[in-house]
Amino acid sequence: MKALMPRARRKPRIGTWRRRGHSQPRNNFFPRPMPSSIALLSGVVLAGGLSTRMGSDKALVEFEGVPLWRRQYNLIAQAGAADRMLSVRAEQKWPPLDVTRVVDATPESLGPIAGIAAGLAKSRGSHLLVLAVDMPRVPLAWFARLRERCSDRIGVIGARADGNFEPLAAIYPQAMLPMVRAAVSDRELSLQKLIARAVDEGFLRVQEIPDAEAVWFENWNDPADVSGQR
Question: What angle do CA 22, 24, 30 make, to 5 degrees?
Fold first, then answer.
């Protein structure tokens, strides 16, 4: 009989994500989705922005008859968040009493990184789903895709073809809390830099965002953005 030669092991397909001046993250791409091993998923809607260009609190702007904060709050539940939170400023008094509020630990407004830190600090889960209040086009399918690639102490972040990350519709591992807290404490407020480091250190995997899906991540900053969707 003809001897069987051992089959050569195929190298995994590497994603096309690239970032100028940033090395390819090690072991963060896989040829097929990985089964989720999230022990408990928490979720937070980031609604603490100043809404300067909108002229009023954008969280209360209605889309399809529902306030944006409620729309996003419902979505994170559908995505599997067992406990949900709303990240707001201390002076925002409108959230209902049955909604868990998390308030930034710092008195000044430091942007979304502070809301992520507050959410991770109060989260009961092994992972935290983060969703900005002003991104109502993000579909449930996006978070299903991210969950498939999460594993113990590792979350998933989206990245566009130009290398920019989408940090406000992502799943972060609880293990990132010390890193995020340190960045807030040091006033290193760039989420792009923080996430690049987290990818390098193995806390986050990268999920590529096809150009056709980039519209999902458009945020609404002024009244024209809202009226254009109606």
Answer: 145
**Binding site feature residues for GTP:** 46-48, 58, 104, 134
Amino acid identity for residue 189 in this structure: L
Measure Cα distances from 225 to 58, 64, 83, 135 in Å. 11, 14, 30, 11
- Tokens representing 29 are 């791409």
Going by the annotation, the residues of the binding site for Mg(2+) are 134
Cβ neighbours for 213, distance < 8 A, ≥ 6 positions apart: 142
Query: Residue 46: phi, psi to the nearest 5?
Result: -85, 110
Annotated binding site: 46-48, 58, 104, 134
Q: Which amino acid makes up residue 179?
A: M
- Which residue do the tokens 């945020």 mark? 219
Domains of the chain: 41-211 (3.90.550.10)
pTM, to two decimals: 0.81
User: In the chain, where do the E strands start and end?
Assistant: 41-46, 62-63, 66-67, 83-88, 101-103, 127-132, 155-159, 165-173, 204-208
Gyration radius of the chain over CA positions: 19
The pLDDT tens digits for 71-90 are: 999 999 999 999 999 999 88
